[in-house]
Specification:
Elements lengths: L1 H17 L4 H11 L3 H33 L11 H17 L10 H14 L3 H18 L5 H16 L3 H18 L5 H21 L3
Amino acid sequence: MQKTAALRKSQATTKVIGHKSTPLRWLLRRCCNSHHASRAARPCVQAVARASGLVQDTVGRLIARLVGIYPETAHNDPQSWPLCSQLTPHLLARREAGLDAVSEISDWPKLLDRAIGYFYGRAAYSQVAPLLHDALTIREKALGPEHPDTASSHNDLALLLKAQGDLAAVRPLLERALAIREKTLGPEHPDTASSDWLLPRLQTKSKLSLQPR
């Protein structure tokens, strides 16, 4: 019941901030069409800034709500897929809306990861790829190119390409993830060991794929 109620709230919020007649658009039209633009400019700009902050706060609360109910284990839990199928369109709508600074909302990469797991579990690789690229871009910008979470995005993208059979593109991503993890986490960390374990096996598989059949 709680998840259903939260989903209904998310749907209502999505409709409000996705509607064409948002206060932000109305205020911008008012500024542009004003006969006294010089007088109107300052209060309009201030009003637009306030409206923009309100929209950003609303989107942030929506994303936090989705993170709270989106299953974390969707990649290997088919029983969670019906719920994921209801929640994922809200994530995709926010992504497609292109709202300014959505990538700066702290829960956004986490929500992307949940949807990535869902699509990956269903082998919907074409839908996984753009979300992985988004997550990597956001983390490189927000956390830096040598953060462990950035390394995880490199690793996840490599695993996707491996599943698609693009072994040539996998190696540089895995090598980058391994280099970051060795530097930031140390050679004995489980994540570092995972990257280190996968690289030589990738090389073996690549050689086998080149052998005549």
